[in-house]
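Q: What structure does this chain adopt?
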Amino acid sequence: MWLGWTKSFLLSLLCLVLVQTGPANAAREELVIGMTQYPSNFNPNIDSMAAKSYVLAMTRRPFTTFDENWNLICMLCTELPTLENGKAVIEKQEDGSDGIALTYDIRDDAVWGDGTPVTTEDVLFTRDVGLHPQSGVTSAEGYRRIISIDVIDAKTFTLHVDRVTFNYNAINDFRLLPAHLERSIFEEDPATYRNRTLYDTATTTDGLYFGPYKITDVSSGAYVVLEPNDTWWGEPPKFKKIVIKAIENTAALEANLLSGSIDMIAGEPAGITIDQALAFEKRHGDDYQILYKPGLIYEHLDVNLDNPILADRRVRQALIQSIDREAINQQLFEGRQPVAHTSINPLDWVYDQAVPTYGYDADVAASLLDDAGWTEMKDGVRHNADGDALAIELMTTAGNRTRELVQQVLQSQWKALGIDVTIKNEPARVFFGETTSKRKFTGLAMFAWISSPENVPRTTLHSEEIPSEENGWSGQNYTGYANPELDQLLDELERELDRDKRRPMWAKLQAIYANDLPAIPLYFRADAHIWPLWLQGIVPTGHQYSSALWVENWYAEDASN
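A:
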């Protein structure tokens, strides 16, 4: 009896020890990340979407990028070409203007996931895709500026660029494509390439990736599975599997975190909303790491300027002055997301303190609408002399609780002014993949632009960047804004190498933007990052190039240490 009890006791004690110490000491091999958006596609050059950039950052490396200190660094290249080190050389164009030759060396150990070396053949092919008017590449302007490419050898090339800009050696958006896999697909029919790329038809193909991880499984709209890339040349990643789950409703995202279905909520692409995070911290702050990272993230309303109602600047000025944006900041965000008066964030050195601002003034807004001809009120809605109603459609990403709350506030405040606002929302992959990128929204589109430090907004504001069927929906000027004065300023601004001389040019740009209102500024976002206590090594950057570019540094801390 005693021996039996002792044996049973020892067995129970052993089980208790295993339960208590096993998980704490065992290495965590899987990380499950939650975010509210699923990528519209996986081709790095087609469509601009933060969720896709976040996923691909784990599977690829750009030639150059900005680090967490906002310094430009090499990742796929070995050294930044500069005028000082001789790898950047100013050269005269045929028209007498200055261009520049930039020589880059690809890392010797850089290979695609199937073992094929990353070479200058990939560079030439990527430029061919970027230059084709029907390829569907989002940021085609950078490729158009490349006059020619000299191949020195398999790992060295020189770009001949048609202008000298202050950020001349930043080729962050030259997103390399694997020529050995994609060339035949592209050359078969460039106009339909965006629908036939292997990144979407065979996403788990090893040779598409050359980062610490490769994509091994996808379920459209649901999840992406990443596993270590055997051909990765850098520091080995610590997790044997990373699963990224798309949970488009932010309340459900929080519930999945609390239930243990996900380990963390990614802040950069599209995670938990700031108001949810503040409430979450009050209830569960001791159980998670919670970080609020202000950054170059501009929440706004893109305005479709082809809409006759919104083409009138007085209407746009009335819209912004009838929104109490400071109340939104204080009541929804506890003051953590300050009002935006322009697209330039005060965190950036180019921000102009004297930029024109719009306060909340419903009387001024009403007067502006009267001046614009919206004078007759019928059933609470303004009409013009032709009997047309002042009606506008407002769209954003479905399931984002904060945006939906802000929509309701806007709808209510504009209704008080006699503006009929209809809300129509879509899943993020549709909203970004089709509606905004092809300018299908008829009124206002609420979303965020995420930029790098001192980023010249040419792709969003220059008239040459208006997407159309004719240019393969290239460019990000979704509003259709065309201002010759601003076009010229954008061209001159990026060519000015003297930092001190650029400051007044930036001030002028912000003044034009505030006066014309091609978009309606709302607020500058702070991303809420929520991590488990055991996760270490993540360093948010505060700009468009996310912490996932350094995913190999993420690790699970042993709780027993």
